[in-house]
Specification:
The chain is an alpha/beta fold and about 280 residues long. The protein has ten helices and eight strands.
């Protein structure tokens, strides 16, 4: 078994592993970990040298260059790559009311600039709104399109997660991205956020636009597999799409501690990734 583990670790995976900060949201919200210490924790506790931030943990710091510089230094000191920032709470980019949509677009500008400062390649956003799926689709194409136009000037991609509402339907979100039609506007397929939609079909539909992938995990069986998500099937879909970027660990379960859940997800990704690489 030990020999097999060493072989797995030596084999180069077809993707790189990053750590989504939301995996530690209880620890962060509980004041047991400071946002500035996240890169070091990723590197030293988990052996992961790429991170995906969540803006909720430094929501008033988007324009604070002193703070961002310190975060960048902490990452660089630990050999950690800043991959992206996940943005929530800045308004609905698919709002059907134009004034609300315009405000949401502008609210995201500061995070584009912060992502650029930190050396990230993207911000993750939501295609949310109120109305019929068709109404939200038209609004989201406009909102995402204008935000992506701004982001392109900074060399930043705008990537959309399946994250509830119509966005958790792969056909709807892929149609939105097709409608935007910009090279720097893509998807962040999340293995777990499809709800009433077939998760494997959803990931397959979103992979042509993928500029990131989120490996959701909640419960593990006795073999170390995710109990409700077939990681072999998922990673096969990801590989067949030609994706070779970061897959971010996002553990959200409550059976294991956040630390143990992250480690279990990493072991699963490494094991299945080695089988497929």
């Amino acid at each position: 078994m030990a020999t097999h583990a060493r072989v797995t670790q030596r084999k180069k995976l077809f993707f790189d592993i990053s750590l989504a900060q939301w995996s530690l949201h209880k620890t962060l919200f509980g004041g047991k970990l400071d946002n500035l210490d996240f890169p070091e924790t990723a590197a030293k506790t988990f052996g992961i040298h790429a991170v995906e931030y969540v803006n909720q943990f430094f929501k008033d710091k988007a324009k604070d260059t002193g703070y961002l510089r310190e975060l960048l230094v902490r990452a660089e000191d630990n050999g950690v790559k800043n991959v992206l920032i996940m943005i929530d709470g800045e308004g609905a980019l698919g709002a059907t009311k134009e004034s609300e949509r315009n405000q949401a677009v502008e609210n995201h500008y500061k995070w584009v600039e912060a992502a650029k400062f930190l050396g990230c390649h993207a911000i993750r956003v939501n295609a949310a709104g109120k109305g019929t799926p068709e109404e939200i689709k038209a609004a989201a194409i406009d909102g995402l399109g204008r935000l992506s136009e701004f982001a392109a000037k900074h060399g930043i991609s705008v990537i959309v997660e399946n994250h509830g509402g119509p966005s958790s339907h792969g056909d709807w979100l892929s149609a939105v991205l097709q409608g935007v039609g910009r090279d720097n506007c893509g998807s962040l397929p999340d293995f777990g956020n499809f709800y009433e939609y077939d998760r494997y079909q959803g990931v397959q539909e979103l992979m042509p636009f993928a500029k990131g992938v989120s490996a959701k995990a909640n419960v593990f069986d006795e073999n170390g597999d995710e109990a409700n998500i077939d990681y072999r099937r998922m990673l096969h879909i990801v590989k067949e799409a030609g994706y070779r970027g970061y897959i971010g660990i996002e553990y959200e379960g409550d059976k294991l501690s956040e630390e143990e859940g992250i480690k279990a997800t990493k072991r699963l990704l490494e094991r299945v990734g080695a089988e497929l690489s």
